[in-house]
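Appendix B, example 12.
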Amino acid sequence: MTLAGYSQDLISALQQNTTNFTYKLSNTTLAGYPAQKLVFTLVSGGITRQGIIELTLVNNTGYALTYVAAQDVYPNYVGIAQNMMQSFNITG
């Protein structure tokens, strides 16, 4: 699997299980490896949610770090979530 394929599989799954799904996909790094960052908004269970998922593949293992919250709560903690994602390491 490629990083692009991994991202598209995740996007497809989110599109199938939610409504009003919109997203922006960009290139980034995660733990020093090439990664993709998915920033999205969706409606699930009648609640609008926002989220970030950072994805990478290392030695055929996929990593997906996720922060999702109700739209009104999202801005309160997104900075903390991004700091945690930036501190993530892959060992071994």
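Residues 3-17 form the longest helix (15 residues). The helical segments are 3-17, 74-86.
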